[in-house]
Design goal:
With 139 residues, the protein is of the alpha/beta class. It has helices spanning 12-24, 74-77, 126-129, and strands at residues 2-4, 8-11, 29-37, 41-49, 56-62, 65-70, 80-87, 90-97, 100-103, 110-112, 132-134.
Length: 139
Amino acid sequence: MSSESKYIDITASARAHIRAQVTQQQAKFLRLGVKESGCNGYMYTLDFLKAMEPTDVQVEIDEHINICIRRDDLALVDGTEMDLVTKGLNSNLVFKNSRAQSYCGCGESFALGDTAVVEPDTQHSESAATLAHDASTPN
């Protein structure tokens, strides 16, 4: 079963993983965002935060998980499903955007049908960058 918000859908396994990672990083929030990247247009980003920024919208997933999304990124992440996928000994958060028209072959980026522009001004921690990758196949 998944937890749905106005913008994103997070499966139970992804919620448990996010909860553990936020606690381990001694953060209060996880920011979900996108940046222009890769061969297909956009790439998801994750950042651990101690506090929200004025441009963030808070999405309460449950009593222990609060995800921040920059207002400029809302249209790009709207309709995204986050899931934890395990293959062998490796587990990764994967993202499936219901509005994505395509994903690149390496699974690092996706393309949308609209012409939204994202300002690439987010600083990303190394530990957050290792948490996730984009799904390599569309919904």
